[in-house]
Design goal:
The chain is an alpha/beta fold and about 350 residues long. About 35% of the residues lie in helices and about 25% in strands. It has two domains: about 5-130 and about 305-330, NAD(P)-binding Rossmann-like Domain (Rossmann fold, 3-Layer(aba) Sandwich), CATH 3.40.50.720; about 130-305 and about 340-355, Dihydrodipicolinate Reductase, domain 2. The chain has helices spanning about 15-25, 40-50, 60-65, 85-90, 105-120, 135-145, 145-150, 170, 185, 190-200, 305-320, 330-350, and strands at about 5-10, 30-35, 55-60, 75, 95-100, 125, 155-165, 205-210, 215, 220-230, 235-245, 245-250, 250-255, 260-265, 275-280, 285, 290, 295-300, 355. It comes from Deinandra increscens subsp. villosa.
Length: about 350
């Protein structure tokens, strides 16, 4: 029996929605049922340019998407300042919520979103795509779960940077204080935080201390920043750096007592059909250098990570709609922990780069 496709409505025509709408159409258990924008003309053009099904309902408002009975779930790629309003409204309309990151401006807003989703029995998931790549699962299984071979986790270093070209630094939504006031910290730093927490099996750090001298645009929005995270046990530490001002870099390095691994493209694989990483255990100095050399692992995937994300989201929703399951709460917990660390970085910067305790 063929599984019914989950019918998505999309709120807004952001650039990232092009990637995710393609993913929805590639996934075998999802389809696009509606698209809404503040302009009917813009929504119509977006649907045409991205080859939406002819049956897609096109609207000149977000409310119309939420009122559409043919929409089971919504993907929300709106500016972060609009997430609270529209994610809550979607949940109240019994639409399952796939929310673009950063999910909120602060954990208070996120708590309101999560409460609305829970009270209305709808699935919540943030759109952190790399978590759904099979490479991510393999690293967890091969490296992070094998303490006997690789030892205990000691440090993680995560970097996500790219150059905002053209008028990006002045006019892009991500540097507009009224739309995405978290700037690079929310857009790029979110990935770094999530990677660090993932490597630590979501064990929150005790304190977060922002690095001095973050860079800002004329409106006071962060363009680059970093921080250190400290667990105050087992000597575990982590650092991250995110930026709109540095060459493209998506590095993740984790050091364990007897081994380490490195990923050069952990956020978006250089090739969407293949993900690779390097790992090594028990490295030693030799007369001519060191050995053994790191091994490269390569993981192929038939679907890009964003399609795997919406496929998993749809699987969870189908379980709820079929009465076989309740909403999976782990995604809400992971999102909240990521947001808490983001908030701690903001607080550390505002308070003179002092350590800020992280409390769940």
């Amino acid at each position: 029996m063929t599984e019914t496709r989950l019918r998505f409505g999309i709120l807004g025509c952001a650039n990232i929605a092009r990637k995710v709408s393609r993913a929805i159409l590639l996934s075998p258990n999802t389809t696009i049922s509606a698209i809404g924008s503040r302009s009917l003309e813009k929504a119509t053009a977006f649907a045409s340019e991205n080859r939406f099904p002819e049956s897609t309902n096109v609207y000149g408002s977000y409310d119309s998407v939420l009122e559409d009975p043919d929409v089971d779930a919504v993907y929300v790629p709106l500016p972060t300042s609009l997430h609270l309003r529209w994610a809550v409204l979607a949940a109240e309309k019994k639409k399952h919520v796939l929310l673009e990151k950063p999910v909120a401006l602060n954990v208070g807003e996120l708590d309101a979103i999560l409460e609305a989703c829970e009270s209305n029995g709808v699935q919540f998931m943030d759109a952190t795509m790399w978590m759904h790549h099979p490479r991510t699962q393999m690293i967890k299984q091969v490296i992070l779960s094998d303490e006997q071979r690789f030892g205990q986790l000691k440090s993680v270093h995560s970097t996500f940077s790219y150059v905002g070209e053209g008028d990006f630094l002045k006019n892009d939504i991500r540097v507009n204080p009224n739309l995405d006031s978290l700037g690079a910290l929310g857009d790029a730093g979110w990935y770094c935080m999530r990677a660090i927490l993932w490597a630590h099996d979501y064990d929150l750090p005790k304190t977060v201390t922002a690095f001095r001298d973050p860079e800002y645009n004329e409106s006071g929005v962060i363009l680059s920043c970093g921080a250190s995270l400290n667990w105050e046990k087992d000597g575990k530490v982590a650092t991250f750096y995110c930026s709109f001002l540095s060459n493209l870099c998506m590095d993740l390095i984790a050091l364990r007592t007897r081994g380490n691994f490195r990923v050069h493209d952990f956020i978006i694989p250089f090739n969407e059909k293949v993900g690779s990483f390097e790992a090594v255990a028990n490295s030693r100095w030799t007369e001519l250098g060191c050995a053994p050399e790191p091994s490269e692992y390569t993981i192929a995937t038939d679907l890009p990570q964003e399609a795997l994300m919406v496929q998993e989201f749809a699987r969870l929703v189908h379980g709820i709609r079929g009465g076989k399951a309740k909403p999976e709460k782990k995604w809400a917990v992971i999102s909240r922990k990521t947001q808490l660390v983001i908030d701690a970085v903001v607080a550390s910067i505002k308070n003179g780069f002092v350590p800020v305790e992280v409390v769940y």
